[in-house]
Structure prediction request, 405 residues.
Amino acid sequence: MTKKIFSILIAVMVCLSMAVFASAYTQLYIYDPDFHLTEDEKYEIDMCGIEIERATGYAVLFGITSQTEISNEEYVESVYANNTDTANGIAVLHNTEEQEYYYYIAGDEKGIFNDDVIDAMITAYNASDSYYGGLMGFYAAAETALEAPPVYNTAPMGGNAITNNSDSYVSESEPIERTLPLVVDAANIIPDDVEKALIARCETMAEEYKMEVAIVTTSDFGGLIAEAYADDFYDFNGYGYGENDDGMLVVYKPGEEGEREIYITTHGNGSGVFFQGIREGIIADMKNHLIAEDYEKAFNTYLDRAEAQLKPGTPIIWLFVLALVGAVVGLLITGSMTAKNKSVIAQNQAKVYTRQGSMNVTDAQDVFAYSFVNTTPKQTSSNSNDDSTHTSSSGRTHNGSGAKF
Prediction:
């Protein structure tokens, strides 16, 4: 009798523990009211969401539905708000009836979820024929983006900013493929429509001139000076066109008067095209627009100056042809003018032009009047090279100019 009671008590305890476990497990990351996924599939995908949030501090949610009583934009925002209170994250909605995608971004203090990253996540989702396979691809793409954020909290001096490994660094022989856009607005100061237009213009310039010209804003240099931040952002995020990673990147940190800071870094052929005088001129032209917080004008001015420098000039051969044509035309005109003059015949002796007895020298002496001394100053150093050349933490050569205002 005692054994039976004991067995019953154990069974009750097991059932209670299973009930507690089931109640503790809730769907936090996947919202699927139309039951496209099995419970086991939901559980596995939720585990992916849990691991991502635990590792990165970002919540990544996904909703699948065929109809909404409110607008899709409001619906996807409610999916995020009703399922998590994490400050940073994203929710994506797939409306199966409309075959459209909508997303809501919360916080995103690191500036991870730009249009390119979101497109990559949705492309991964669409790559599979099943909802389960598509969602596993979606979360894998999100994890990849979150593991390599464009803004890092610790200084990667002497190490790789992505691996945080002090024994390795990015070098010329270890190129990184750029995954970020040519405009990264981590400070969130550029209007969305302006940002898209700037990205399109940067991409067009890169293809036309074989040079990447990039824009970055940030609210924090992460403990680095502006020069190091700009260099490392360029190197560790794979900026630059072609084998030599040719390009120029401007970083701007907004702030109060005296705290605003701008820095332009160049690498590869970009250092030769955008030399010190050009960089300093660009910064001078941008300052007033940045102070006025007219970021559209400021960054378009940056691109205007860059494009003007990249456009090919008049070929030397044409300059030679123009000079030759000008010389020939000049000779023809002056020749026709001189042909009309009737000059006297030149004489070999000056006495022909003087009257006999009109010039008498009564006294003569040698007087020292003055002398000329030609001097050449010693060259103590050469000013022909850009004095801003330096080595970044990755071991690569950069040139740069900056200002605080």
In short: Confidence is low (pLDDT under 50) at residues 14-26, 149-173, 375-384. Residues 126 and 134 are 6 Å apart (CA to CA).
